[in-house]
Design brief:
The protein has eight helices and 13 strands. It has 289 residues and is an alpha/beta fold. A hairpin with a 4-residue loop joins β2 and β3. α1 crosses α7. The longest helix has 20 residues. The chain starts with 10 loop residues before the first strand and ends in a 5-residue tail after the last helix. This is NAD(P)-binding domain-containing protein. InterPro entries: NAD(P)-bd_dom (IPR016040), NAD(P)-bd_dom_sf (IPR036291).
């Protein structure tokens, strides 16, 4: 399930760690951020004496097909990234290990919030959850990862005082309420232990937690490059369509840059006939949940 690509205008703003990028109390180093939002968003930094230290984005599920793209795009935009992975050896061959802004560490979302809090630690400013269970004969796997694992991450954020959370979910999670019980996609995705039900309950936990969230529900995920532009709709609207994982990663990263994404559930697909819109426009078109 994936999404179309991003945006057009280039907005230049300079700030010293506001909202998402709050200053840490460290006095060793400081960073001055130059943020250009929209399609060409990027963050550049200049060291300044006595200024606060740059914090990091923690990505859970960083070696997954979508997670690794999120890591790559975050690094490309100048973020420092902590890649939480289940398999360190796999991560070393999957992620760009020679990047000084990337830290790879073991983080299993099924092992409870305490270990996750240790991995997130005090140097993380936000968490992106791109985890997903691997199909198996274990019918509890979706609940262990997509439900309990996500809940563990939220609880770990609370322990560390991290107040920004991005979740990659799926369209049709609330298919029953949408009248989509007979939708082939809804049936297929629930074959493996009621995956969509597990995701929906995790979403509900996030929304009640008080954390500043953006829940991204992509359509069918494609590994190929983007085709068409991103279409963004409110929750429980889309019941078909697909999107490139590259576009899903892009929306995830842009959500960190735009306050218009705060406390929102967005559904995304890509369509060739859709007009190209800026991320400010896209996020602003969705009401807060």
């Amino acid at each position: 399930m994936a999404m179309a690509t991003a945006t057009s205008t280039s907005i230049s703003t300079q700030f010293r760690r506001t909202s998402l990028f709050h200053s840490s109390l460290s006095t060793r180093k400081s960073h001055f951020f130059h943020l250009k939002a929209s399609s060409g968003s990027e963050i550049t930094e200049e060291e300044q004496v006595g200024a606060p230290q740059k914090k990091k984005i923690f990505v859970a599920g960083a070696t997954g097909s979508t997670g690794k793209r999120i890591v790559e795009q975050l690094l490309a935009k100048g973020f420092s990234v902590k890649a939480g992975v289940h398999d360190i050896d796999k991560a070393k061959t999957t992620l760009p290990g020679d990047n000084p802004n990337l830290q790879i560490l073991k983080a299993d979302v099924t092992e409870g919030s305490t270990k996750l809090a240790d991995a997130i630690s005090d140097d993380s400013e936000a968490v992106v959850c791109a985890t997903g269970f691997r199909p198996s004969w274990d019918l509890f796997a979706p609940w262990k990862v997509d439900n309990f694992g996500t809940v563990n991450l939220v609880d770990a954020c609370r322990k560390r005082g991290v107040n920004r959370f991005i979740l990659i979910s799926s369209i049709l999670v609330n298919g029953a309420a949408m009248g989509q019980l007979l939708n082939p996609a809804y049936i297929f995705l629930n074959i493996f232990g009621l995956t969509l039900v597990a995701k929906l309950q995790a979403e509900q936990y996030i929304r009640k937690s008080g954390i500043n969230y953006t829940i991204i529900r992509p359509g069918g995920l494609r590994n190929d490059p983007p085709k068409g532009n991103i279409v963004m709709e409110p929750e429980d609207t889309l019941y078909e369509g697909s999107i490139s994982r590259d576009q899903v990663a892009e929306v995830s990263v842009e959500a960190l840059l735009h306050p218009e994404s705060y406390y929102k559930v967005v559904e995304i697909v890509a369509r060739t006939e859709a007009p190209k819109r800026s991320f400010v426009e896209l996020f602003s078109s969705i009401k807060k949940g």
